[in-house]
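The record is kept unedited without comment:

——
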Amino acid sequence: MFRNHLFDHKRLIALSALALGSWVALSAAGVCQADAPAPDAAKPDTAQDGSVKTDAAKPDVAKPEAAGAEATKPGEPTDPKARKTFAGAIEWENHRNYDAALDDFRKANKQDGGHCWECLRRAYALAIKIDAYKDAVEIAREWLPLAPSDKAKGEVEFRLAMALQEEGIKEKKEQCIAESASGFKAAIADDPGMARAHFHYGVTLARLHQDDAARAEFTAFLDQDHKNPTLHPRAERFVDHIELARATMAPPFFLTTLDGQHISMDSLAGKVVLIDFWATWCSPCVNALPHIRSIAKKFDGQPFVVLSISLDSDGAKWNQFVEKNGMTWMQYRDGGFSGRIAKLFGVTAIPATFTIDADGVLEDQHVGDAGIEGKLKKLIARAVEMGNRPPVTLEVDKAPGGAN
């Protein structure tokens, strides 16, 4: 039902998260999936930068014919056969048959003599989208020799390192994580202005237990970056509590709730967070609403928040529903399965709930209706204890060591 992802940042790899469960007992009528929305809901579109993982193209869609004789754009294949395959790959992608599209983009590159930058760029993006990290690593290696400048080379080295890091984390392959360190280091050397590489290099070093070097990279990111404010609170937390950089953290996000609160994932640090993805057109979601309301009321005043994220496309209908049903906890509308937050969490079916502890760590177990309150009590009790946790004293003058 749900797709498992590890945190990252879009083009820093679109990440995602481990879906932890739906309200089992309250969802006996089924779930509402991305490829089968309610009749009054528009089918979600696929965003260019990533979307939910779907199955093969519709059965009645024949393999697409090549597009017309359009002018070749920079980076696209020039060989006639390669261009036909490339056009077919784009059509497969438009029909959400990502596996077929990935194969055809790679085939087009081979037909073009292995010189198609755009074929490999698109193939890499699709490999990341469907969690095919091994393929992404292979594609990035083929892509690297095509880089026309040091800056472009640094970008590909960064993507190679990201794919290695994700493969290492997902498949528990420490060798891949170790290899990613060399890639991040090379990316920074070729493009010193690539601040985000410092952040992810820090994650790799932390996972290799080179904590001082990891802190130095997170600090370098904070000093240099001016484009990713969402990641700044996370980097600051990693500097203070380096062990969190080794954990499965909930993806970072920033949003404005229905009542005008500006919140981010990291601004909720110290609180247990229950995120509920739902929609007014989803019957199991509506059936689960009384229990969500009960939980929000029961733990009110404690270090705990509920955040309901609607996949409704109709804002007015959603707003009216929230008001009518007394949904007084935090509310946000993401607009569909292709919404920004839904994609970060890898949501492909609703209702879907995610429990995040006070450190921001995404819990790695299913949370069913029967046991959720007991689980929340334990997490909240720990959050109360954490409120008295002393700050970490950093040895700021200690030189980083052990970096690859």
Observations:
- Confidence is low (pLDDT under 50) at residues 1-29, 36-69, 392-404.
- Residues 150-171 form the longest helix (22 residues).
- The chain has 13 helices and eight strands.
- The longest strand covers residues 272-278.
